[in-house]
């Protein structure tokens, strides 16, 4: 059970920390320069963790196993992080920006899961998606 729980706890802790720090990034700083520093620190950390967990696999061999997804994920992450920096600079509150974005993503992934991955959709999941949409409306009601 711990093998299923610890990754979720890591995501929750990291995502919470991410939003708290993104919200505090100075507005006078170019967001893309901030992301360069972020990614340099992230790359160094990830490389150190790779070295610690490689288990004897050579770097060249490990690199040969990569495909397009690593580069595409990098582009998606730049969009995600710069989007949140701009959301906070545009005045979105930390309590609403993440909630709005994550609820919208949850509903979109539900539709993609059904249409593209042929995942089943039960009545309670459809109700949950409807509640998410209602929540999006209510949270952003002015």
Structure description:
This protein is an all-alpha fold and 142 residues long. The protein is 80% helix and 0% strand. It contains 6 helices and no strands. Helix 5 packs antiparallel against helix 6. The longest helix is centred in the N-terminal third of the chain and has 23 residues, at 2-24. The mean pLDDT is 94.
Average of pLDDT: 94
Q: Number of helix segments?
A: 6
Class per helix and strand makeup: mainly alpha
Radius of gyration: 19 Å
Give the gist of this structure:
It contains six helices and no strands. The chain has 142 residues and is mostly helical.
List the helices and strands and how they pair.
Elements: H1 2-24, H2 31-53, H3 59-64, H4 68-89, H5 94-116, H6 123-139
Helix pairs in contact: 5-6
Observed structural traits:
0% strand; 6 helices; 142 residues; globular; mainly alpha
């Amino acid at each position: 059970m711990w093998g299923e729980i610890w990754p979720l706890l890591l995501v929750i802790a990291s995502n919470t920390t991410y939003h708290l720090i993104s919200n505090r990034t100075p507005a006078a700083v170019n967001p893309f320069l901030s992301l360069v520093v972020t990614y340099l620190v992230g790359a160094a950390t990830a490389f150190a963790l790779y070295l610690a967990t490689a288990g004897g696999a050579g770097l060249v061999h490990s690199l040969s196993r990569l495909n397009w997804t690593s580069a595409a994920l990098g582009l998606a992450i730049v969009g995600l992080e710069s989007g949140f920096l701009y959301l906070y600079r545009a005045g979105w509150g930390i309590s609403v920006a993440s909630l709005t974005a994550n609820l919208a993503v949850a509903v979109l992934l539900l539709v993609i899961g059904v249409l593209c991955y042929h995942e089943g959709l039960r009545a309670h999941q459809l109700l949950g998606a409807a509640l998410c949409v209602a929540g999006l409306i209510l949270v952003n009601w002015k």
